[in-house]
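Input structure tokens:
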């Protein structure tokens, strides 16, 4: 077992947090698996192309993201990350605030970790 894997995945979660606040096509392409399944708290499901497009065009716009209560579990080439996410948003110019519980599934593909799946659930106020 690679004992460095939890630290590597934790660093990737931070890269993802920063890329969601200030997205670039390159950063998102590097983080997201080609077959990404990205689930939102309202049930909407995105692919790598659709979530990247939404982040890049501002229809999904995170202005701040704070992560807490994070756990990372690695089993071979799969890592499961759970955390609480509190964020300010400005989706298509509409300010908002979200409190979510997030599940991220990372997979090591050809030696590199990529986000394979994400699911969000709303947290009561």
């Amino acid at each position: 077992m690679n004992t460095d894997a939890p630290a590597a995945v934790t660093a990737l979660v931070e890269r993802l947090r920063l890329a969601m606040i200030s997205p670039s096509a390159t950063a998102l392409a590097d983080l997201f698996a080609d077959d990404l399944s990205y689930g939102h708290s309202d049930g909407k499901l995105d692919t790598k192309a659709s979530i990247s497009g939404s982040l890049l065009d501002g229809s999904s716009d995170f202005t701040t993201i704070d992560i807490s209560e994070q756990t990372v579990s690695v089993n071979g080439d799969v890592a499961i990350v759970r955390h609480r996410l509190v964020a300010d948003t400005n989706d298509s110019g509409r300010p908002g605030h979200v409190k979510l519980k997030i599940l991220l599934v990372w997979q090591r593909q050809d030696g590199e970790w990529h986000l394979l799946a994400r699911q969000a659930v709303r947290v009561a106020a």
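The chain is about 25% helix and 50% strand. The mean pLDDT is 95.
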